Amino acid sequence: MKTKSLKSNEISKDWYIANAEGKTLGRFASEVAKVLRGKHKPTFTPHMDMGDFVVVINAEKINVTGDKESNKTYFKHTGYIGSTSFTKLDLMRRSHPERIVEKAVWGMLPKNRLGRAIFKHLKVYTGPSHPHEAQKPKELSF
Question: 101 in helix, strand or coil?
């Protein structure tokens, strides 16, 4: 029995579009991360970038459960002493709603150079329009 390992020039990348309207944040982000990583393909290889491109629309209409809308905070540190900042979810939704989905998906990807390369294949937009119509993305249904 031999295991087939794909070469980088044999990998095909598709484009998918995912509508975040009415979806729960964590469940939606895990499905998007699975497609970005390539785990939905039978040729998945953990050490290679096998995933597809994902365009997320209507990021401002994503749902969260429980009291997360008022209690969930995002942590940021600049590297300087005492320069921590905490941003609540409701403020993030008003100022940068696309970052809510980006941070949730980033938390589900590997924290190495492969994860950073995979994360660049995620495109998040507020509203139903996006500039990737030329790629003819397929509908991603969860």
Answer: helix
How many domains would you assign to the chain?
A: 1
Taken as a whole, the chain contains a residue count of 142
Per-residue pLDDT of the chain (142 residues; tens, 9 = 90+): 888 888 889 999 999 999 999 999 999 999 999 999 999 999 999 999 999 999 999 999 999 999 999 999 999 999 999 999 999 999 999 999 999 999 999 999 999 999 999 999 999 999 999 999 999 999 998 7
In a domain, 72, yes or no: no
Give the domain range for residue 21. 12-64+96-139
Q: Alpha carbon 98 to chain centroid distance? A: 10
Residue 43 lies in a domain: yes
